[in-house]
């Protein structure tokens, strides 16, 4: 029974809890929300053991939803989406705990929105019906808009609107593409169905339209990743979002773009995705993302903007990993997605803590605080090292696999991407130095208080993951290997057959 | 088939695990009870001594077996991805045996010295935590059984040197020096990384045990791929072992505490590059171009660094450039295929360079106490403020003289044997490839300069009139025993070090060479040893050059003419050029650092990101839609007449369409 | 059969009606021209009714009803506007400016 | 047959002339009266087209009721005087004439493309009589008939509400 109901429980429970939080008096809101998100985490943990790596799509529940249009409520998890779900349920309780001190006004609303956001996110990762996927994609957008728009910083409205319209514009095109796809497949096979399995089984007949459909999917996901030209909403959204908002935005929302590529764009349009021109284009954009993201991050005065641009760089690695389409590179991409969620999430928590103490996000507002707040400085150092990809931490394992996997397919691109390793040190270390080392010359920094037990409780799980994945990633790699191998083989096989027929 | 592992060898993990445990304990103490100095020093030094004991045990066990293949112990699966199966495995063979002995041995002595040197420092526990962590990463690097595990150690030591250089982080210069060291190392690590990608691409594995036997089959000798691999590996080495062009970080690294300079920037970390080239002997053997580059850059660096050392006034900077120069020798050695000679020089250099650094440490320590007592704000490291210290610090002076004689290459001390072997090998190689004659020449010139600047250092520091200042003079006296003890130990090692590998020319057994034979037998077979006559001639030339350098220094330099730093006239001409390190730092700054910063701030961020992408595309479309709205509103003038006209025009259009 | 000429007259009247609406500024005169256009349409209806059956005439009947309603309400509006703005000149009545 | 044609031609010219005058007179009352003249000539044309009932209706409803209403409103707002020409000046004139002319040409072209004019003429005489019009009005078109009554009611209420000074 567990395997049938778990995903639906994961989807439904947060919404129920959100309603509950709204009824509770303001003072209790955050505690109830924390409890609810912990329950959510507890529900999702058994997924880790009961998941058989080799058994493809699991925990599947398939119910008719709108039979007239061939829309079904199908949810399921495989090696790729399992870790995204676990990452979500892992980050949400931490971000709720992390915003205890940060959110002071309208707490009920904030925590309710966070819980609704959780179900939206999990919905995106588990849905195997394109219509359900699209609905969840939009459901996830609205709470995030309010979180940035209401509890954000000074230019929050601009950032929230920009975030919303940018993503919404992309997703509308995707909706059109989904509809056209379903209709085309329906015409050819007589059955109109939004089911992912059905659509991937009846590809091939799309002909030249496949380019446009892929283009629409690409745009929607590229905006979300964000890839180079579509990234400008990210720094604004991050700077203005509250800590919890930034953590979830960076930790999970960015992964929807890359997850979308892995789950939908590649398998549905293999021949287009592997078309030499498209490949070259995407790999180039990914490379630009890596180097450009790093270089621009180097000169950011605002610490959160710096982390935002570093996310562009990290996800450039993911895109390179996905498009190299070898077993190592895809697994590396998945691993970077998880690691980025953890280390960038931790970075945003620390940035939030610094903001809570000094109400300033500017790097130069700090300096020499390692003397005053040794614990915070130590945590910031470890997390920065993980974000730079120091071997022994989680960052290295992911990026190393991506480079190793991408090298056979794109030797030159892999070497350029490897320079990302240098650029990473060039943007994060100077920032780290300006914040915690250098002379303690500003009086306000003298009486900063060190990490409170609550803040330590937020950071310890993340630091534990950083070290654990860095030193012993085998269990994760083992669980995602079959799914990654299946994806790589099926996409390459379909691409070969369809290019032949076209 | 790896031999059955005797108990001591299966405990190989104990060697790196001890310093790690020490680092964790000291780290906790640093955060919890920074004042518990006794416990910290006990843990810090104890852990190192135990590690040395464990290492010695392992080496003895290895010696009994004397296997031809390295003993690999696998602990857990690290990266099991498809056909890439990297395990966290340690390996012990003759080469890594030598290295772990050097690292733990010299490391232990330096830890003891640090107890005295860092006594007054508030960050005492944090210092020992970092130092232990460094030894852990160095041991991981040396004992790693595959490229990625070695890379963990490789970047780990880079991290520790960043933490230790910037130890007194409240001064911006120290923090900058640490950052510069890490970034430059990272550029080197990029090379190492790309080499790993190439190796995996062509051999399908990253374990030493798999790559090297397959090397000759997978890579055509002298082919482009193996040359690329060796060059990228060497790029990594230049970053880590401070060779041209990535050496600029080492002199700045002197901002860290002196024992750190001794341990990291003289004895262990900087030799990682030499170890890497020795470990990847089979690859370098396959690529003559690669080896030639290594030897060439090594010789060039040796000479170039020696020239700069001539005119430096900071005692530690002289030693820093001397290290860069001596590393150049080691690369010249391993570049010519004489891996044993390279490793031998590495070992002896570890002894006398550590001695020199620790000696300068006790000098600086004494100078600090003197200036501290009189609240004078003078540079405690500037030789112009020293002079005639032998009278106050006899032990340090004597021991440093021994090290100076060793480094100059005066027989029978260690330096003579190791440096002579490298020059001999280079000369012998010259017969086969004339380029090596040039390298040999450069090496010899560097030897001359080495003797000169070391003697200059000794004269200015320990002889001639004392320039420290009257009241400070009374405060100057010998370092406490906890500091001079390690100095004596290193002195003994420097004297006896030569015995490790006395060449047959002098009736020695060349024990180190035979010991390393299983690892290095696949290396480039240097030309047959020159006839005894040329060998003696070489030895004579080396000794002559060394003597010339020292006597020349005595004759040319007049320590009495020196004035304290405050009053010293600015240097001019060639002297200024050398003092200013050939303006290399400024060159890098102008060519690389500033343009990259300008490019990313002005071009990438302000123009591309702000104006082009954000301004044009995003806000641009927003503005466009608003403009469209405005045009629409202009149309609504409110006059009915205008609406009617538009109405009729519409009707005409519709009817027109229907009619046509 | 008078269909041809009837349509011609209807077209002429309709054109004159449009011309009147375009040229005049006085609201009431414009109203009249609109009535003129309606009559032109009625003429066309009747002309076709002769050939296609009496439905045309019935339609004219309805058109007249609507025209009457429209005239009543229109004039009421003009009256209300006049009381407020003391003019019926459309040039000055532009409150709904964009 | 040609008698009716001549009559038709005459009344047609009369209608067009009076319509032309109606739109050009500066005095609204004159325009109103010329419009009445146009309506009467149209009524005559209706008769010639065998639509006697409609013709009578035209005279009664259109000329009688609506035009009276117009005149009444004109008098109420005492716009009788010939105000300054409210033509819109040369540009307006030019545009107006151009557009009207274009429309006229299009309608004439449309006329050619109309259904075959030839068609057999139905039984001519009693076609326009009251029963032939009334029967479909109260059978097929009963619903629209009733709706029209509602429409007129709405118009009455609307007019009263709008025109009344204060409710």
How is this structure best described in words?
The complex is a heterotetramer of chains A (502), B (660), C (98) and D (167). With 502 residues, chain A is mostly helical. Chain A is 76% helix and 3% strand. A two-stranded antiparallel sheet of chain A has the order 1-2. The longest helix of chain A is centred in the middle third of the chain and has 34 residues, at 156-189. With 660 residues, chain B is mainly alpha-helical. Helices cover 73% and strands 3% of the residues of chain B. Chain B has a two-stranded antiparallel sheet with strand order 1-2. In chain B, a hairpin with a 2-residue loop joins strand 1 and strand 2. The longest helix of chain B is centred in the C-terminal third of the chain and has 52 residues, at 584-635. Chain D has 2 domains: 1-82, Four Helix Bundle (Hemerythrin (Met), subunit A) (Up-down Bundle), CATH 1.20.120.1200; 128-167. In chain D, 74% of the residues lie in helices and 0% in strands. Chain D is built from 6 helices and no strands. In chain D, helix 1 (2-24) packs antiparallel against helix 2. Mean pLDDT of chain D is 80; it is low at 116-124. At the C-D interface, helix 1, helix 2 and helix 3 of C face helix 1, helix 2, helix 3, helix 4 and helix 5 of D.
Which terms summarize this structure?
heterotetramer, A: 502 residues, mainly alpha, two-stranded antiparallel sheet, 76% helix, globular, D: 167 residues, Four Helix Bundle (Hemerythrin (Met), subunit A), 2 domains, 6 helices
The biggest chain-chain interface is: C-D, 69 and 84 residues
Main sheet summary of chain D: none
- Give the full name of the CATH homologous superfamily of the largest domain in chain D: NADH-ubiquinone/plastoquinone oxidoreductase chain 6, subunit NuoJ
Number of strands of chain D: 0
Domain count of chain D: 2
**Helix percentage of chain D:** over 70%
Biggest pleated-sheet summary of chain C: none
The outline of chain C comes out as elongated
Q: Helix count of chain C?
A: 3
Tell me briefly what this model is.
The complex is a heterotetramer of chains A (502), B (660), C (98) and D (167). With 98 residues, chain C is mainly alpha-helical.
Topology at a glance:
The complex is a heterotetramer of chains A (502), B (660), C (98) and D (167).
Chain B: H1 7-10, H2 14-32, H3 37-65, E1 71-81, E2 84-92, H4 94-117, H5 124-143, H6 147-165, H7 172-203, H8 208-218, H9 224-240, H10 249-252, H11 258-267, H12 272-279, H13 281-286, H14 288-310, H15 315-335, H16 339-373, H17 394-408, H18 414-432, H19 435-462, H20 470-475, H21 481-497, H22 511-520, H23 532-556, H24 573-579, H25 584-635, H26 640-659
Antiparallel strand pairs in B: 1-2
Chain C: H1 3-23, H2 27-52, H3 55-85
Chain D: H1 2-24, H2 28-48, H3 52-76, H4 89-112, H5 130-138, H6 142-163
Helix pairs in contact in D: 1-2, 2-3
């Amino acid at each position: 029974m567990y395997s049938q109901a778990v995903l639906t429980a994961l989807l439904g429970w947060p919404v129920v809890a959100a309603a509950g939080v709204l009824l509770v008096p303001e003072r209790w809101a955050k505690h109830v929300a924390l409890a609810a998100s912990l329950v959510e985490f507890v529900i999702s943990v058994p997924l880790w053991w009961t998941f058989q790596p080799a058994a493809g799509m699991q925990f599947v529940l398939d119910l008719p939803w709108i039979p007239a249009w061939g829309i079904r409520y199908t949810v399921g998890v495989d090696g790729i989406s399992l870790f995204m779900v676990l990452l979500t349920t892992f980050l949400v309780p931490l971000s709720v705990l992390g915003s205890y001190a940060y959110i002071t006004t309208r707490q009920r609303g904030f925590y309710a929105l966070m819980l609704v956001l959780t179900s939206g996110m999990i919905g995106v990762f588990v849905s195997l019906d394109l219509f359900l996927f699209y609905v969840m994609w939009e459901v996830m957008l609205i709470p995030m808009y309010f979180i940035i728009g209401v509890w954000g910083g000074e230019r929050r409205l601009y950032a929230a609107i920009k975030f919303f319209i940018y993503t919404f514009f992309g997703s509308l095109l995707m909706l059109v593409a989904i509809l056209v796809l379903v209709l085309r497949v329906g015409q050819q096979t007589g059955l109109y169905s939004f089911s992912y399995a059905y659509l991937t089984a009846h590809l091939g007949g799309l002909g030249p339209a496949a380019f446009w459909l892929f283009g629409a999917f690409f745009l929607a996901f590229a905006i979300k990743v964000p890839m180079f030209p579509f990234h400008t909403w990210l720094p604004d959204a991050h700077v203005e979002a509250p800590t919890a908002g930034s953590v979830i935005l960076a930790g999970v929302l960015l992964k929807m773009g890359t997850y979308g590529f892995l789950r939908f764009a590649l398998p549905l349009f293999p021949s287009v995705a592997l078309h030499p021109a498209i490949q070259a284009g995407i790999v180039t954009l990914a490379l630009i993302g890596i180097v450009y993201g790093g270089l621009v991050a180097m000169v950011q005065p605002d610490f959160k903007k710096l982390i935002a641009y570093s996310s562009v760089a990290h996800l450039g690695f993911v895109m390179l990993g996905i498009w190299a389409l070898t077993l190592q590179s895809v697994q590396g991409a998945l691993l970077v997605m998880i690691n980025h969620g953890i280390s960038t999430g931790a970075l945003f928590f620390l940035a939030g803590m610094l903001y809570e103490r000094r109400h300033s996000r500017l790097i130069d507002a700090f300096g020499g605080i390692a003397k005053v707040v040794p614990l915070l400085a130590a945590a910031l150092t470890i997390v920065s090292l993980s974000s730079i990809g120091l071997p022994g931490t989680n960052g290295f394992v992911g990026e190393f696999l991506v480079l190793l996997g991408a090298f056979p397919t794109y030797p030159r691109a892999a070497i350029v991407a490897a320079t990302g390793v240098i650029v990473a040190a060039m943007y994060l270390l100077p920032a780290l130095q300006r914040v915690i080392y250098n002379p303690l010359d500003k009086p306000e920094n003298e009486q900063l208080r060190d990490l409170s037990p609550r803040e330590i409780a937020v950071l310890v799980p993340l630091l534990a993951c950083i070290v654990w994945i860095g030193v012993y990633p085998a269990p994760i790699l083992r669980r995602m290997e079959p799914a990654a191998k299946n994806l790589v083989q099926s996409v390459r096989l379909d691409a070969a057959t369809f290019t032949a027929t076209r | 088939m790896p031999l059955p592992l005797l108990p001591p060898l299966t405990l190989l993990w104990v060697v790196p695990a001890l310093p790690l445990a020490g680092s964790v304990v000291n780290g906790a103490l640093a955060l919890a009870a920074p004042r518990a100095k006794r416990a910290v020093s006990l843990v810090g030094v104890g852990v190192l001594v135990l590690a040395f004991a464990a290492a010695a045990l392992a080496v003895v066990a290895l010696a009994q077996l004397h296997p031809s293949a390295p003993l690999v112990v696998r602990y857990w699966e690290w990266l099991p991805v498809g056909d890439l199966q990297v395990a966290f495995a340690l390996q012990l063979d003759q080469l890594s045996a030598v290295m772990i002995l050097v690292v733990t041995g010299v490391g232990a002595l330096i830890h003891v010295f640090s107890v005295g040197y860092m006594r007054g420092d508030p960050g005492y526990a944090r210092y020992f935590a970092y130092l232990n962590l460094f030894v852990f990463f160095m041991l991981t690097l040396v004992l790693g059984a595959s490229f990625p595990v070695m890379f963990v150690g490789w970047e780990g030591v880079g991290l520790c040197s960043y933490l230790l250089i910037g130890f007194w982080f409240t001064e911006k210069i120290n923090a900058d020096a640490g950052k510069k060291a890490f970034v430059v190392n990272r550029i080197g690590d990029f090379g190492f990384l790309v080499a790993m990608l190439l190796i995996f691409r062509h051999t399908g594995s990253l374990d030493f045990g798999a790559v090297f036997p397959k090397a000759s089959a997978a890579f055509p000798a002298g082919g482009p791929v193996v040359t690329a691999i060796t060059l990228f590996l060497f790029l990594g080495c230049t970053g880590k072992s401070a060779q041209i062009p990535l050496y600029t970080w080492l002199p700045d690294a002197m901002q860290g505490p002196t024992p750190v300079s001794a341990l990291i920037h003289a004895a262990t970390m900087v030799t990682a590059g030499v170890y890497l080239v020795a470990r990847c002997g089979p690859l370098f053997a396959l690529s003559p171009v690669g080896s030639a580059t290594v030897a060439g850059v090594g010789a060039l660096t040796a000479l170039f660094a020696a020239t700069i050392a001539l005119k430096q006034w900071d005692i530690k900077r002289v030693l820093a450039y001397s290290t860069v120069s001596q590393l150049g020798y080691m690369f010249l050695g391993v570049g010519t295929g004489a891996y044993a000679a390279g490793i031998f020089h590495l070992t002896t250099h570890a002894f006398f360079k550590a001695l020199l650094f620790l000696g300068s440490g006790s000098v600086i320590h004494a100078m600090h106490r003197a200036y501290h007592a009189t609240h004078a704000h003078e540079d405690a490291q500037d030789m112009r403020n020293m002079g005639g210290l032998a009278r106050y610090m006899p032990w340090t002076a004597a021991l440093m003289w021994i090290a100076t004689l060793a480094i100059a290459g005066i027989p029978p001390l260690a330096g003579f044997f190791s440096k002579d072997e490298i020059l001999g090998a280079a000369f012998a190689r010259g017969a086969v490839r004339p380029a090596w004659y040039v390298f040999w020449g450069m090496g010899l010139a560097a030897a001359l300069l080495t003797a000169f600047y070391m003697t200059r250092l000794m004269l200015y520091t320990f002889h001639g009139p004392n320039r420290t200042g009257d009241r400070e003079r009374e405060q100057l006296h010998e370092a406490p025993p906890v500091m001079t003890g390690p100095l004596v130990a290193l002195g003994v090692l420097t004297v006896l070090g030569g015995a490790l590998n006395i060449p047959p020319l002098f009736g020695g057994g060349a024990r180190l060479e035979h010991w390393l034979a299983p690892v290095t037998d696949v290396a480039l077979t240097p030309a047959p040893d020159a006839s005894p006559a040329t060998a003696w001639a070489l030895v004579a030339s080396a000794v002559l050059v060394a003597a010339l350098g020292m006597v020349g220094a005595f004759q040319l330099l007049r320590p009495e003419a020196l004035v304290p730093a405050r009053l010293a006239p600015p240097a001019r001409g060639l002297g200024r050029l050398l003092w200013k390190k050939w303006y290399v730092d400024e060159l890098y700054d102008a060519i690389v650092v500033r343009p990259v910063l300008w490019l990313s701030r002005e071009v990438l961020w302000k123009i591309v990101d702000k104006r082009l992408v954000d301004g044009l595309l995003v806000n641009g479309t927003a503005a466009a839609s608003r403009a469209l709205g405005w045009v629409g509103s202009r149309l609504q003038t409110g006059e009915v007449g205008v609406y009617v006209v538009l109405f009729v025009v519409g009707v005409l259009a519709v009817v027109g369409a229907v009619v046509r | 059969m008078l269909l041809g000429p009837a349509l011609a007259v209807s077209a002429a009247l309709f054109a004159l009606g449009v011309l009147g609406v375009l040229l005049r500024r006085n609201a009431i005169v414009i109203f009249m021209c609109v009535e003129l256009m309606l009559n032109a349409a009625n003429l066309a209806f009747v002309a076709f009714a002769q050939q296609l059956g009496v439905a045309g005439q019935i339609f004219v009947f309805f058109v007249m009803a609507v025209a009457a309603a429209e005239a009543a309400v229109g004039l009421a509006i003009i009256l209300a506007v006049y009381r407020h703005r003391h003019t019926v000149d459309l040039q000055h009545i532009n409150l709904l400016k964009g | 047959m040609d008698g009716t044609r001549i009559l038709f031609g005459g009344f047609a010219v009369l209608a067009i002339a009076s319509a032309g005058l109606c739109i050009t007179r500066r005095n609204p009352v004159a325009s109103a009266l010329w419009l009445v003249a146009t309506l009467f000539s149209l009524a005559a044309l209706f008769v010639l087209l065998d639509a006697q009932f409609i013709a009578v209706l035209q005279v009664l409803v259109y000329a009688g009721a609506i035009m009276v209403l117009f005149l009444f409103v004109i008098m109420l707002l005492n716009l009788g005087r010939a105000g300054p020409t409210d033509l819109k000046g040369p540009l307006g004139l030019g545009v107006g004439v151009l557009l009207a002319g274009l429309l006229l040409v299009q309608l004439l072209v449309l006329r050619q493309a109309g259904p075959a004019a030839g068609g057999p003429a139905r039984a001519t005489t009693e076609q326009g009589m009251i029963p032939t019009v009334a029967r479909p009005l109260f059978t097929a078109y009963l619903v629209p008939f009733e709706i029209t009554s509602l429409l007129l009611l709405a118009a009455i209420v609307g007019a009263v509400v709008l025109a009344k000074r204060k409710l």
